[in-house]
Amino acid sequence: MMQLIVALALWGLVGALSLGTRRRTDQSILYAAVMIAVSLTLNIDAVYFAADGLLGGRNYADLPANLLLLLGVYFLSRAILRASSPSRANAAARPFRIGAVITASLMVTTFVLIDAPTTSGTFMQDFGNQPAAAAYSLIQFTYLGIVVALTGTICLRFAGRMSTPARRLGFRVVGAGCGAAVLTVLSVVGMDLAHVFGSLSLLSLFASAYDVLNLAAILLLCFGLSLPPILGWVSTKLHRRKLQAALPDLTRIWADVSAQRIELGDGSHPYAPGLVSRDVDTVVHRMLVEIRDALLFNPTARDRLRDKDLTLLAATETRIGAQRTSA
Q1: Per-residue confidence of the chain (327 residues) as pLDDT tens digits?
Q2: Cβ atoms < 10 Å from Cβ of 314
């Protein structure tokens, strides 16, 4: 059940990140979320057994699942660091990349040495007493722990510098999620060592901690990363709805003040609501520019506007400017 909750949370994150694809030039955070979601979806027993059956039924599906998790966390951390502190992201990029390559190579090497002849939905529980299996897990989670620890530290340090309240809150939640992820890594390390040395009581203790910490880390990370794109999407929808509502009055104002301009003297209304085919932000911005140009060209045209018209123009200009700044 917990595996299903984790997978659904991650696919929810993918959906949330998809809302902001048009506003982001760098889509690496979305690609990283997809990789992690696929990786943890393979942890669902039914999915894992089906995938491993296609690969020969010898737990070969475990390796690509964990390699996807490794790559996903690498790209996700790099994207988060780039958003919070580009200079730190550049400094960490090379060590993170080298570490990912070395870790992946060692994972493949140690996995080959594991004797796991039958498909298991509890891979480490069944085969974790083998030194090769313990090394396989320790190598992977040591790298993940270092990466998320650095990412979380920088998120919390630079959260206050984010441009919007949603991003500031999102980065703080991500930082908390990274803290929970570090504790999750420590619980995995504890399980691996306890299993190898045969301490079943410690193994049970660390396993209980892992269940809680892993779920907390995933939910916090998904919530923190989802917050900015979801709130941004809602804000954009409300913003455009307000512009659509103001469009008839803006069209009337545009017609009133520009009627005396020679180039617009034919009386046509290309911005009439029924004729607007372009994005409403672009239409309204262009209309505001032409209204201001008309007022500058003929200052007496201002006398044709009412106080509420001037208030609407000022409010719309402020809304357009605020939206472009937040984007």
Answers
A1: 788 999 999 999 999 888 867 666 668 889 999 999 999 999 999 999 999 999 988 899 999 999 999 999 999 988 888 877 777 667 777 888 899 999 999 999 999 999 988 888 888 888 888 999 999 999 999 999 999 999 999 888 888 887 778 888 988 999 999 999 999 999 999 999 998 888 888 888 999 999 999 999 999 999 999 988 888 888 888 888 888 888 888 888 888 787 555 444 444 455 544 444 457 888 888 888 888 888 888 777 787 788 888 888 888 888 877 665 555
A2: 10
Q: Which DSSP letter does residue 261 get? A: -
Q: Which two tokens stand for residue 286?
A: 């262009």
Task: Tell me the DSSP string of 37-69.
Answer: HHHHHTTSHHHHHHHHHHTTSSSTTHHHHHHHH
Structure tokens at 232: 């941004």
Q: Amino acid letter at 247?
A: L
Both tokens of residue 125?
A: 């529980």
CA atoms within 13 A on the CB side of 227: 17
User: Could you tell me the sign of the dihedral formed by the alpha carbons of 54, 55, 57, 62, in that order?
Assistant: negative
| Spatial distance between the Cα atoms of 17 and 71, rounded to a whole number of angstroms | 18
Alpha-carbon distance of 137 to 143, in angstroms, equals 10
**CA 79, CA 154: separation in Å to the nearest integer?**
12
Query: Can you tell me whether residue 269 is helix, strand or coil?
Result: coil
The whole-model pTM stands at 0.78
Instruction: Give dist(CA 83, CA 167) in Å, integer.
Output: 10
Q: Measure the N-to-C terminal CA separation of the chain; round to a whole number of Å.
A: 38
Half-sphere exposure of 133 (CA within 13 A, CB side): 22
